[in-house]
């Protein structure tokens, strides 16, 4: 019971010196977007016509003006859709994810990503 207690010799491992944080935009708002075009009785027909309208673009990317026209919503709501998509995309290599907030319109969203969320 009289054994002396020696100093602790445990070592603390070095923390990772290359920790990288990549903040993502989160433009989520409460409520629903007023997209009357997506309230339909025949979903296949409605989504097919929406896809054809979006595919008519010469590039594989869709900006907020084309999205607003296809969904018949305001430019602000179309911009909110693009910002929301940018914040939830899993691909860090997508231009929409890595673009600055002001450049979202010029970059646009990948057509296939938009079709998946429709």
Give an overview of the whole structure.
The chain has 118 residues and is mostly helical. The protein has a domain at 36-117. Helix content is 42%, strand content 3%. It has 6 helices and 2 strands, in the order αβααααβα. The chain has a two-stranded antiparallel ribbon with strand order 1-2. Helix 2 (64-71) crosses helix 3. The model has no long low-confidence stretch (mean pLDDT 72).
**What's the tally of helices?**
6
Sheet with the most strands, sense and barrel status: 2 strands, antiparallel
What is the straight-line distance between the termini?
A: 73 Å
Overall 3D shape: elongated
Q: Over the alpha carbons, how many angstroms does the gyration radius reach?
A: 24 Å
User: How many extended strands?
Assistant: 2
Strand order of the largest sheet: 1-2
Order of secondary-structure elements: HEHHHHEH
Q: Classify the helix fraction into a percent range.
A: 40-55%
- Portion of residues in beta strands equals under 5%
């Amino acid at each position: 019971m009289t054994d002396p207690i020696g100093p602790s010799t445990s070592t603390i491992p070095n923390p990772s010196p290359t920790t990288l944080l990549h903040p993502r935009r989160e433009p989520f708002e409460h409520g629903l977007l007023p997209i009357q075009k997506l309230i339909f009785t025949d979903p296949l027909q409605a989504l097919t016509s929406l896809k054809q309208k979006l595919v008519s673009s010469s590039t594989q990317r869709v900006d907020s003006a084309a999205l607003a026209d296809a969904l018949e919503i305001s430019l602000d709501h179309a911009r909110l859709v693009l910002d929301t998509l940018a914040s939830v995309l899993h691909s860090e290599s997508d231009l929409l994810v890595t673009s600055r907030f002001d450049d979202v319109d010029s970059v646009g969203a990948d057509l296939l990503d938009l079709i998946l969320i429709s």
